[in-house]
UniProtKB/TrEMBL annotation:
The keyword Mitochondrion does not apply. The chain crosses the membrane at residues 7-31. InterPro entries: N_methyl_site, Pilin-like. Pfam families: N_methyl. The keyword Membrane applies. Belongs to the N-Me-Phe pilin family. Keywords: Membrane, Methylation, Transmembrane, Transmembrane helix. It comes from Thermomonas brevis. This is Prepilin-type N-terminal cleavage/methylation domain-containing protein. It comes from the Bacteria.
Amino acid sequence: MHRQSQGFTLIELMIAVAIIAILAAIALPAYNQYRIRASETACLAEAKNYASFSLAAIYDKTTPPVPMASACASIDQATDIDTDITATPHSPFVRTVTCDMNSASCQLH
């Protein structure tokens, strides 16, 4: 009397692993691009906020505060209305943010 075998065969498991590997190969580059865009956007928002706050301080004839970078790896301190601010997003450092202090408008470069 033969017992009916239960479970998966080796070839079925290998096919399942291959399908998972193909899906991972497609998903990882998309995830990395998402992570880069999120880092750049967060730094852009932080730099714009700092530029607006510093511009208000300059117009009030007070010293702009020291930037507290959390979403950005670094933000240049505002000194006057004629000096633009540059901010660098955290890793992977693909693009930088430049803020025009005349209008407090910021762009990714």
